[in-house]
Automatic annotation (TrEMBL):
GO terms for cellular component: cytosol. The keyword Nucleotide-binding does not apply. Pathway: Carbohydrate metabolism; tricarboxylic acid cycle; isocitrate from oxaloacetate: step 1/2. Keywords: Acyltransferase, Transferase, Tricarboxylic acid cycle. SUPFAM superfamilies: Citrate synthase. One of its GO terms (biological process) is carbohydrate metabolic process. This is Citrate synthase. It comes from Amphibacillus xylanus (strain ATCC 51415 / DSM 6626 / JCM 7361 / LMG 17667 / NBRC 15112 / Ep01). Belongs to the citrate synthase family. The keyword Transmembrane helix does not apply.
Amino acid sequence: MIKARGLEGVVLTDTKITSISGTKLSYVGYDLDDLVNYATFEEVVFLLWYKRLPNQAELTEFKENLFEVMELPEEIYPHIEHMDLNKIHPMSALRSVISLLGAYDPEDSLTHKDATMEKALRLQARILTVITTLSRLRNGKEILHPKKEYGYAENFLYLLKGDPVDPIEARAFDQALILHADHELNASTFTARVCVATLSDLYSGITAAISALKGELHGGANEQVIKMLMEIGEVDRAIPYIQEKINNKEKIMGMGHRVYKKGDPRAKYLKKMSKELTRKAGQEKWYQISEIIEEYIKKEKGLPANVDFYSASTYHSMGIEHDLFTPIFAMSRTSGWIAHMLEQYDDNRLIRPRANYVGPKKLEFIPISKR
Ligand SMILES: CC(=O)SCCNC(=O)CCNC(=O)[C@H](O)C(C)(C)COP(=O)(O)OP(=O)(O)OC[C@H]1O[C@@H](n2cnc3c(N)ncnc32)[C@H](O)[C@@H]1OP(=O)(O)O
Ligand SMILES: O=C([O-])CC(=O)C(=O)O
């Protein structure tokens, strides 16, 4: 038996979705740099699911199809209204509501491909509405309805904050969604694939994946980054704060990566966005503190910033609530999770590794009355 702690370096499967080579990242053969500069999130979702870029007519239809199913079904609202949304973390609420949406979605056979793609569309469209609805309800705001003329990123910002949607923010947010859309066999994607490899459905896979993304070693790191920035508060406190953490052998959230040892290719884009948007919001200090931390950790520990690091100050500068950062990651990654689950269905084998037993052996059984 081969043993690899944390499955480091283990190749589970072939994939046609995402490739990581050194510090180069591509989706279905397209360089991330081109996608982030020239594509929209919807084009990337289409690419991940259908393994080719859409033409204009296909993209228009895909966007319309997403829009058509964006509203939440009526039967979901009583469940949400029963949740104490000011106490429950939105990532937990999201996990539960996605599971509920699955309960109300028809249980079609997995061999019925069209039905599976319709489910995929409903999931991608409604995860947006779930997050914005959770936020608006807990803030006592009326629920808004998606607008057909808005793209996915714009609709998210609109449903969250209302009009007007700032075009600079909307483009940055769209790019952030592209940057988070897929990342090969990260922990949550692996979780989704393990789940559906039992021939469970897409909702089960997404619920499982959200659960895995929630942890702070994975997607949950972005919320921890903003928490850290807020604790630091001022530029001159950054170095002493980080030094103390390092002396206490604590991890610095948003730094380090299992695969990228020399740099995460997504981080430079988020860094640029953070610089521009914090400046636009008159909050440049969050970018400055982040940059000090990044340089210090690189020099002292040789660790690069990952995708979660600069997304924190970027989203903060857009006025997004901090506990929505990880749900937003989930919203984007739903596209990649779905792509991977579809790929898993296409060439499925149950995922079932082994464990090396190291506990006690041949113990004498003592009946409960004598223990
Ligand atoms: C979207 C994403 O999921 S990106 C990752 C998001 N997660 C984070 O930002 C959390 C902070 N980072 C980490 O915990 C890690 O770097 C991970 C989990 C991302 C990758 O971890 P692994 O490849 O398993 O590395 P591992 O945790 O074993 O660390 C190796 C060494 O580097 C150190 N290290 C790794 N990351 C950090 C960090 N962020 N801060 C300080 N030290 C770190 C570890 O303490 C360990 O040191 P040691 O060998 O002296 O014990
Ligand atoms: O690939 C990983 O291990 C984590 C990551 O960066 C991601 O999921 O985007």
